[in-house]
Amino acid sequence: MGQALLEVKNLKKYFPVTGGFFKKTVGYIKATDDVSFKIKEGETLGLVGESGCGKSTTGRAILRLHEPTSGEIYYKGKDVINASKNEMKELRREMQIVFQDPYSSLNPRMTVGQIISEPIVQHGFMKKGKELEDRVCQLLEKCGLARYHINRYPHQFSGGQRQRIGIARALTLNPSFIVADEPVSALDVSIQSQVLNLMMDLQEELGLSYLFISHDLSVVRHISNRVGVMYLGSLVELSSKKELFQDPKHPYTRALLSAIPVANPKTKKKQIILKGDIPSNVNPPSGCKFHTRCPYAEDICKEQVPEFRKLGDEHFVACHLAK
């Protein structure tokens, strides 16, 4: 892994909440709230957390599929947030996304060949013809599909095959960075392993960097180099995969790790059950957002927002009591 490819600083994405007869803004959903991290060349950063914690919003905001409310994003030193339309078009060649749902992310009225070739034509790399068809077939074969699939429609494929088509589409412009938004959550377990191994092989072959978003810690452990844990829109812990799984510092991370199922039925594992409901993103708790569910919370947790501080080598945590 080389230098920092992507740098995110204090990223925020708030969605307005409207109410009343005139639909005035009465509040904001703080989907992503002051998130900072870096991704190195050739690295996979896993982003985990409960549903609704802001993982997908973070990934989409980085690509400006959601316009960020505030913050800074730099890709190879280039300012993403303030990029013009033409500059953003250039950046999109190197920053791509694989969507979560392989059933709704592909146009049902287009053939596989049309779906994969569309970005190449739109960006002016090639014109329609034999050379473009060969390029599409090459991408299909690289992702584990056959040349004759080029004239088929999405409904003629299984879920795993559709996700392979989505990965092939993301590779059309030779990107360096891909946001993988829960790419295997809708697939069977046996198919999940095939798609994950495909992504890891492509990373090694093409030198890709991933932001891998998932709620499945077993999957994240398999593919990631570092792992970030999100809670209620904020990053609460960031560390190498090995250190996070062996020595988690944040109580929320410990609760998530305790919920990973064990393959051996004779092995007893103590699960940490968090009490209470997840607070609202519209009106989050004061101080540490996790203090309403934390078994170790003290008065300082209710009053002061914890600093996202460094505890060890590349290990960061937002907790007053972490040591």
TrEMBL record:
Keyword hit for Transmembrane: no
CDD domains, per the entry: ABC_NikE_OppD_transporters
BP terms from Gene Ontology: peptide transport; transmembrane transport
Keyword annotations of the record: ATP-binding, Nucleotide-binding, Transport
Family: Belongs to the ABC transporter superfamily.
Entry-linked NCBIfam families: oligo_HPY, PRK11308.1
Name of the molecule in the record: Peptide/nickel transport system ATP-binding protein
Annotated source species: Paramaledivibacter caminithermalis (strain DSM 15212 / CIP 107654 / DViRD3)
